[in-house]
Amino acid sequence: MSLLLRPLFEKTSSTYTYLLADMKTLDAIIIDAVDETMQRDIAFIRELGLNLKYIIETHVHADHITSSYLLKRYFTQAKIVLGSVNEIMCADILLNDGDILSFGVYTLSAMTTPGHTNGCMSYVVGNQVFTGDTLLIRSCGRCDFQGGSAEKLYDSIQKIFTLPDETLVYPAHDYEGRTMSSIWEEKQFNEMIGLNVDKQIFVSRVNKIKLDLPKKIHVAVPANQDCGAKKL
What we know:
six-stranded mixed sheet; Metallo-beta-lactamase, Chain A
């Protein structure tokens, strides 16, 4: 068995797209694909001769437009996947906690991890977890729009922390050039929630964060609620 994992970076929003494939069957999935880098992703999938089965979103993003809809036009057999809380009509599959998708001999297990938004999901593949904007490297997602809740975010990260310490963490963003972490590292060194910080302190830390809204939020959210089709 041979699992291909390729983190692919979009620099404007500092977003990581993840392409995973079983290199024996060539079945593949892509997580958090971005409109601006769609042609790169298509070329890479075609170069490797992959059969794209699932186009997966961790949540409805506010800082970029997804390429889900357009990718499905190129790879017509692929299915668009989100968490069921999102109730996105353009999705082919809406996942609940514990649901499983297969690609080749590999499985993806869905975890509901609300907090950054109410519809956030994380996905476990083997000893890897793709955490979206829920758990970042040494940080966590903001909670001040799209039904965000610092209390829910704390519970979601604690849920992620039940994974084995050696599990590798792949977030949707990093602004320092880092590509991955581990559950053990984040338990020890995460500045927001590491070292068993209690819920009250975490909530206070998160709620003190004051950031400008994402520049594309008023365009990206409506577009992403239609899987990126509204950009056309």
